[in-house]
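Appendix B. Chain record.
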Amino acid sequence: MERILVCGGAGYIGSHMVRRLLDEGFDVTVFDSFETGHREAVPRGVEVFEGTLNDPGDVRRALKAKSFDAVFHFAARIQVGESVGHPSLYYGNNVAGTLNLLRAMVERGIGKFVFSSSAAVYGTPLEIPIREDHPLAPINPYGWTKRMVEQILADFWRAYGLASVSLRYFNACGADPQGRIGESHDPETHLIPNILKSALSKSPGPVTVFGDDYPTPDGTCVRDYVHVCDLAEAHLNALESIWNAPGARAYNLGNGLGFSVKEVLAAAERVLGMNIGYRVAPRREGDPAYLVADSTLAMRELHWRPRFASLEEILETALRWHRRPRY
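Structure tokens predicted for this chain:
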């Protein structure tokens, strides 16, 4: 039985990964600071180490717990706007913290690493859809932290033989189809949960749309929405690929379909059967107009294909989560 340490295993994507690994029979341990993660999202019986990547002692203590075969890393700060206003937090956690983790892995002889990267490494796209050979030119500190870690991973493979796969997510969304866990951030900055929270509240208010003057068909940002369970599937496939062909590689993960903010609102209205009001606010700094993935490489080399291709289907899984009592 392979032993996996999941850093950030109490967060949104990490908690879905933990459940998928358990379903597949892996021995799973969670490392999380619980600064943004939820204890309730970790299944009973899973060993948990509370700590922060910024403390090398915490990291070493967790890695010494078992003879881990691989590490999955989801423990990053993720808010683009916050990264612009507080870059120190992002470079400290996402880069320096990850470096602490990688150093400790090398010390322990743990040679397999799956990293949550981001489409933010591309910056403003020069062409749509975006392929992996697109220039890497982040336009915000969050994107730069992901870009820097990808470079570190390439260097660690050459120097220490630490094999890795970086998965460049586009817009993660949806929830466990059984409604056990879902997306819950504080503050919540993602579109779909904010739409559903507004619509399901006792006094529904307008959803905030950041910018309606982008060079897109309806003036709002266009994004590629990929279901969180499809992301978990890709991580499993990435781990298998490391076993079969070690190296330091990166792959896009997206549906290859772009939906504008207004199109997401319209889909939510169809799923909910109600009108959803919105108000327009200024653009957020660091938001490109278009981000749509070409995931052909992941489909070919990781044998991955998203199962949740319909926006309505994705919304329905998220709605199931938001309608249930939750953490």
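Further analysis of this model is presented in Appendix C.
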